[in-house]
Design goal:
about 375 residues, alpha/beta, 3-stranded parallel β-sheet, 13 helices, globular
């Protein structure tokens, strides 16, 4: 399988190929970026508005790439706000409008299957974005999600250093089981951690900071504050709630992982309350999905883009393009998210983090 390596200077390479781990509610999530309908419209359906990346990065990057490749194309956008039933209705609405290609990051990969298959039966092409939805999708664009979990697990071990022993108790907070990526992150993390540390407590945090915080509080009660060597969090959103819970329990200086390179996560890494995150450059992913969507709309082959195959939960073999994630710690913030222009130093180093930024060599 061909994979596009990203992060740091390699982002430009990923961009050239593309161009040729939740719930929530937000009133603006029902908004659509276009009222146009018909054959020159591409639908974009994202799962929630709590995860910062979707509204801030994925949506605008995707729309910009579509416009670049197809001047008279429009993007019809909607966000499910963490509601699988709402997303199913959004698919139906787009089909009714006459949208011919729908790109979807499924809120619930299994629940959306019937909606996808109904759309495909009416001649609509569906591209699974970031999460591999079940059903007769034409293509899938994401990252190597097992690798994401491996990077998270290895970063936790690296942060533990000599304390990474089979006696070290680690708390593991996974993503939502309705998201197929969560199982892959979990698999990769176990691949890195099993036999190296004692995973003494493992639960799903449902991609919610509040749920993750509750689970870690329960872990502290069960294991004892002094007995927790580190915490695996499947993403930065949950890590935020976990970091607050650890602080409240008087626990500091232990590794805490994350994913998505959210600004708050990067700031916690600078401050020392989170040890790592995983950077999945949003622009190459959005550009790749937009390129495939435009090609499908125009009846072109996508074989040169989706060169691999992934099998969905429904057993469908889906042409896929997977990109490579990058682990981020305090040591390489400059060479990853700052170098790639995701954030500036001033974005990260607000007054609250000025002292920590100076110590980290960011100012």
């Amino acid at each position: 399988m061909r994979r596009v390596v990203i992060g740091t200077a390699a982002v430009s390479m990923a961009l050239s190929v593309a161009a040729c781990g939740k719930a929530g509610d937000d009133k603006k999530s029902d908004s659509s970026s276009s009222s146009s309908s018909g054959g020159k419209t591409i639908g974009l359906l994202l799962p929630d508005s709590v995860t910062a990346r979707y509204e801030k990065f994925d949506h605008p990057y995707f729309e910009a790439q579509v416009k670049k490749l197809c001047a008279d194309c429009t993007v019809d956008y909607a966000n499910a706000a963490g509601d699988a039933a709402k997303q199913a209705q959004q698919v139906s609405t787009m089909v009714t409008k006459g949208v011919k290609v729908i790109v979807i990051s499924a809120q619930d990969s299994a629940a959306i299957k019937s909606s996808i298959d109904a759309a495909v039966a009416k001649g609509v092409k569906v591209v699974a974005y970031d999460r591999l939805a079940q059903g007769k999708v034409s293509a899938y664009v994401s990252f190597d999600n097992v690798k994401v979990g491996e990077l998270q697990g290895q970063a936790l071990l690296d942060a533990l250093g000599s304390k990474a022993t089979t006696k070290s108790k680690v708390v593991m907070i996974n993503g939502d089981d309705a998201d197929p990526n969560a199982a892959q992150f979990k698999s990769g993390a176990h691949k890195a951690l099993d036999g190296k540390v004692d995973i003494a407590y493992e639960q799903s945090g449902l991609w919610k900071d509040t749920v993750a915080a509750q689970k870690v509080k329960a872990a502290i009660t069960q294991l004892g504050a002094k007995n927790i060597a580190g915490v695996y969090s499947a993403n930065d959103g949950m890590a935020g709630g976990i970091a607050t819970t650890l602080k409240g329990a008087g626990i500091s200086g232990i590794p805490l992982t994350g994913q998505d390179a959210e600004l708050a996560g990067i700031q916690r890494i600078v401050a020392g309350t989170q040890s790592s995150t995983v950077y999945k450059a949003f622009k190459p992913e959005a550009d790749a999905a937009a390129t495939i969507a435009v090609d499908l709309l125009q009846g072109k082959s996508i074989d040169s883009l989706a060169t691999g195959t992934q099998t969905s939960g429904s057993g469908d073999k889906v042409p896929s393009q997977l990109l490579t994630p990058v682990s981020v710690t305090k040591a390489n913030i400059k060479d990853t998210v700052i170098k790639d222009g995701l954030y500036t130093v001033s974005d990260i180093c607000t007054s609250e983090f000025a002292k920590a930024c100076k110590a980290a060599g960011l100012q």
